[in-house]
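Example 3.
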Amino acid sequence: MDKLQEWMTAIRRDLHRHAEAGWFEFRTSSVVAEHLEKLGYEVLVGTQIIDKDAVMGRDGKAVPEQKQRAVRQGAQKGWIERMGDYTGVLGILDSGKPGPVVTLRFDIDAVEMNEAEDENHRPFREGFSSLNAGAMHSCGHDGHTAMGLGLARILAKNRAGMSGRVNLVFQPAEEGARGAKAIVEKGFLDDTDYFVGLHLGLGNPTGMVVAGASGFLCTTKFDVRFRGRSSHAGVAPHEGRNALLAAANATLNLHAIAPHGKGASRVNVGVLEAGEGRNVIPPAAFMKAETRGETEGIDAYMFDRASIIVSASAAMYEVDFDVSMQGKGIAAESDGEMIDLVLQAASGVEACTETRRHGKLGGSEDVTWMMKRVQEKGGKATYILLGSDIAAGHHNEYFDFDESSLSTGVGVLANLIQKLLAPGL
Amino acid sequence: MDKLQEWMTAIRRDLHRHAEAGWFEFRTSSVVAEHLEKLGYEVLVGTQIIDKDAVMGRDGKAVPEQKQRAVRQGAQKGWIERMGDYTGVLGILDSGKPGPVVTLRFDIDAVEMNEAEDENHRPFREGFSSLNAGAMHSCGHDGHTAMGLGLARILAKNRAGMSGRVNLVFQPAEEGARGAKAIVEKGFLDDTDYFVGLHLGLGNPTGMVVAGASGFLCTTKFDVRFRGRSSHAGVAPHEGRNALLAAANATLNLHAIAPHGKGASRVNVGVLEAGEGRNVIPPAAFMKAETRGETEGIDAYMFDRASIIVSASAAMYEVDFDVSMQGKGIAAESDGEMIDLVLQAASGVEACTETRRHGKLGGSEDVTWMMKRVQEKGGKATYILLGSDIAAGHHNEYFDFDESSLSTGVGVLANLIQKLLAPGL
Amino acid sequence: MDKLQEWMTAIRRDLHRHAEAGWFEFRTSSVVAEHLEKLGYEVLVGTQIIDKDAVMGRDGKAVPEQKQRAVRQGAQKGWIERMGDYTGVLGILDSGKPGPVVTLRFDIDAVEMNEAEDENHRPFREGFSSLNAGAMHSCGHDGHTAMGLGLARILAKNRAGMSGRVNLVFQPAEEGARGAKAIVEKGFLDDTDYFVGLHLGLGNPTGMVVAGASGFLCTTKFDVRFRGRSSHAGVAPHEGRNALLAAANATLNLHAIAPHGKGASRVNVGVLEAGEGRNVIPPAAFMKAETRGETEGIDAYMFDRASIIVSASAAMYEVDFDVSMQGKGIAAESDGEMIDLVLQAASGVEACTETRRHGKLGGSEDVTWMMKRVQEKGGKATYILLGSDIAAGHHNEYFDFDESSLSTGVGVLANLIQKLLAPGL
Amino acid sequence: MDKLQEWMTAIRRDLHRHAEAGWFEFRTSSVVAEHLEKLGYEVLVGTQIIDKDAVMGRDGKAVPEQKQRAVRQGAQKGWIERMGDYTGVLGILDSGKPGPVVTLRFDIDAVEMNEAEDENHRPFREGFSSLNAGAMHSCGHDGHTAMGLGLARILAKNRAGMSGRVNLVFQPAEEGARGAKAIVEKGFLDDTDYFVGLHLGLGNPTGMVVAGASGFLCTTKFDVRFRGRSSHAGVAPHEGRNALLAAANATLNLHAIAPHGKGASRVNVGVLEAGEGRNVIPPAAFMKAETRGETEGIDAYMFDRASIIVSASAAMYEVDFDVSMQGKGIAAESDGEMIDLVLQAASGVEACTETRRHGKLGGSEDVTWMMKRVQEKGGKATYILLGSDIAAGHHNEYFDFDESSLSTGVGVLANLIQKLLAPGL
């Protein structure tokens, strides 16, 4: 294993161990910022790169406690202060020479779930499973972040032979499609000529590089609160207004929404918390939910149906309710020109044993906000699927990936940037 | 307002403000024990009166934190230490003269729910609403405890004119039918000749005293855990095993159990917590539930049906599950002889403006374990319903009661004991 | 077995074999009318005794076919014609002497269900199980009718020694609480001084006579139609409006209505028919349902909740719906004076081995409309529970009863009338 | 409008008016056979072309009544007798000269649903809407059959200039994927060199011809019967075993099966019939259901989940159940060579204004059994999507299509056969 691979693996495992959910990536941002600064990048963090009005699905009340936790786990106070109450890092490497602007995006947040505590799970067995309850890198963003820093090192070394400018965006809160838009709205993508995002795993084996992705599912993330009335479950059950039954019934019927005949559709109630005491008719319930669709129309169909079901379930149990929007993901397409360039870049990487032009994502990714903005402004964009054998499906508590893919990914990206920013091109 | 009423009101409000859920009544027990000791009672606490093997529905892991909280809120460390990890107090007043043993039971725990934070709610408006999230005296046990201490004062003063012995049992964890049996099994009820329990409110207006109760609902309290498998809700929903859907479906169908033709039956899922992240198929769910029935047979029918429904819901969603028993309440009947005595005692209390021989409880009460044991050993028992106007139903977040009823209750009990323990009887 | 018993048994079995559901009792009415006329009664039938505006839950469209069927099965055309399109018989025996008016009511309809075809079921084994699909005498009204005719025979014989008048009401459509009110509204109960209804079985063993009943459940019967939109279940499921899902969801949630803390409550969806083809999103659904409650308030609570649930389920699936009322039963109490008389009458019947003053019905009975009208007009009423061992519960496909109880019942009624109408009383 | 168009339109409307559900197409088969015989075809019907062991989803008990109905509606007794109890027609036109075998398949059955009775619906307004309750040509098979006969006429006229042989298969029971396999298993497809099936409408506008289809959904059709126990809904609800609740709960949860991440999946409960009387706990329920999947694996996933849900719902309500298979559809792909030929054939038809190589069906079609058999035996197959504007979606009660497309379809098919069977090819 070469040194860069070793270095990235160590970073990945450190981040994995200190997994942080969306908008709480204070330690992760601190680690990234510190490395980038040492490598000579101009570094912007938190409120400097986030448009607060465009932020979605952030639990502001938990931020002070999360900042404290981050510091306890090694975040540097200086960076935390510079961040304000927002996470995320932008590293800028300007060659000083005229040339195109290339932006790469790496997402840094963990999934809100618990990690397996089981000897069969390598991160647990080898001591780098998540210390933070309710946060696990089960989607590989720890690997993405490590690749971003690995690439930063290579670029810093090659700076002299480069024209134009490179932006490395370390984006918070990709899970839930919450963070990308807030960076887009700040305008940082507006002068980008070439944009690349990537994701490891997703069923593609180690060695495979898929140069462009389609099939991003549009998605809408929302919370629902039901509020009823408590009563004694033995003496006066009829006096209650049962918020749990409203929520349970909504859950079942949400999952029974008729699929759309024109393309894939999804719905999930990911979290339900309801009730207070065993012998009390539950007066309150809280749900985190999402819909998805292969097109914006299909997602709109799903969300419309979902809204009707929530409203009718509340009416059925005579409880109040409100729905609050928490995130929104859109669709995007990769540009053929960029796909060609990625394929060329990949051909120069030995570990890349197989390439494909196109792959279908089948999930949602808020990178689409960035791709769309770049394309609207006249730039080109693609989204690379980087093969990496996985131990279990994404968002499964046993998820783990083949760390050797980190080098492969960095190799492809470095080649691509060289092609794009070689002076005289 | 006379001094005793004032004193009891102050105690009641202090306890209301520091509401403690079942098995966590460390501060309450400390307050009670301290008062009893000052009044000259022999005082036993916690492990001295609790048979640990008979304890139900206790969250042992939370005890250390709860003890710390209690101390922060004014519990005396000495009493906490004497309690061990268990709550509850027994105060014994022995006249030194031969005579019968009279036992009175006061339950001391709060309901697991949040209190209304609303100016229309007197405890909030007047500053004595619960400081402890998830615990509210919405069943009036704060009043019961205050009456127990008020009675203790009167008895201590009248000790000289008394024969026999009085036991004042301040029982933990009545909610959920968890605590009484643990005291019964320790044997403290075995030599009791006369036993009295009581409850305020329950639809009876201030001034009313109902001398005996029937219609206790038998009850079974149980927790259910479902364990499935997480997966990515967009990419691979079919790979998940959805524990939330299993729980939601179980909840709905539990509430749809056919009522029993022979008498009242109840079921409640009071709490449901499920899932981890919005975009993750929920791998786990946890439910607190209970069944009730007018007879043991009806409760058994309800619990059997509930077990089948839980098991079938788990099978339906291919998830694992387990059911753990958390409490059990039985039925009991009041003795006619005791009812007569209570009616006589009530007739001597001016504030008691109306009496009835019999009332139907319609709820569950684990005092039945004590009544049954006393009756099995040849003693007599009754359960008094003490009228008290209430602001909202029991277990409602706006519950409050008419504190003037405390004096009425203490008056009836003091008269009753005088009748039972007058020397020469 | 004496001759009257033999005669009633034969009638009962003939009626059992030709079971007719409510408002379709054309053959039964013909049989009853024919016997009464032969015995010298004044006989009124169908439209002569039914107030059409007060009729509930009658399927008028099926009447012509049912009349044809009845004739095929032996109904006399002359009686059918006199009935018009309505069933039911009133037999009047006037002594010609002044005296009180006594009215007895016998219900004649079968339950809408199929009878067991099983050698273990006596009616099947012995060849008198129902020939009519969807109609079975599983509630014992065949026995009631046979008793009414048996009593008619005795009274006709004893006519000379009688003063006053006897009305024998053979009421259609008791099941579903549909028929009694239509007779009441025609005014036939208005001059009644003493009223008696009865029911056999209901858990009371052969030999038992319970002289008065309470605990009639109030009830509301209603049909629901959901109308959605069909679409291709494979190509365009999202274009459908699924009436079956609306109905299934309503059904589940109807059964989950919280029981009322103040007394027994019931709900049943007895019939659901939905959909057209396997691969078509179901555009229509039809439900027959009912609620019950120990008081009118409780039944109103149940029906209000049911209405909300039906409406919300329709909204949830974006389908239209309508609710149509099909029947209504109320509560009533037996008069103490009548209970005393029944107990005296029973004491003179050898086969009556045990009596009780009061019993709880636990079901609904539209006889309550008659009892209430009689009581409002100053008369006295009671409802007798006549013991009869049963082979399986009422409305079970294996229901059968001990025919020897027919003589017991007739004996009690005959004694009672003798007491009431003995000249000179 | 030319004469052939007029003739086909008349046939289509006659068939539409006498719509017959799968396995009951006795009149339709008689009409087809009669025409073919007159045109000089060798005609085989019913049992001559159906392998009874491979028949799925046929209600044999209803056949005698359906045959009578067909005769009443004009079917010729001679043909009905030749059919035996099975429907379907094979017309063979043998040129007598050596050459390839071309088989074309037209499905003839209606959908099990009711047709709109509304002046806005042309078939109703113009008097050719279905006379048969529960059967409607809402999928266009009446058009397919008319095209088959139209083509038969053209071929009969051109017979002299033809080599080889043409088989025209008029297949029963396509809806529910029930009939094709029974013809395949009889061996009639085994010597086919070129096979063509087609479907009109499906979202393709009049004038469009799509030369090959993919995306056939695999499908499994099944019935479920639940059997519980009746009881009195008021007196003894707890004694029942509620088959309707089992079915309602199964229905809801079937529709909530998680979609498959790898491709489209479907489930439908198309029919539910349950219960007997309003006040009886429903002892029985019957469901017609189906699953679909983009691959056999996905359909297997759906059916496995469905089986588990049905079984668990039965267990939950303690009722018995059985699942019986009623139909099975598989996937197939069109051959490129055939697609090329269809495109050429279409280019010679003026009314064909637009062509596409490929279309996605998105539904199921049991023609796949035929395509697969032909391909396995070395032949080539395709499935044509024939554009036709529709008034409402397939299987909607307002479905109707643009009859001018019949000529377009026949034109393409005639050209194709000419290409395939021109002597000397």
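The radius of gyration of chain A is 22 Å. DSSP finds twelve helices and twelve strands in chain A.
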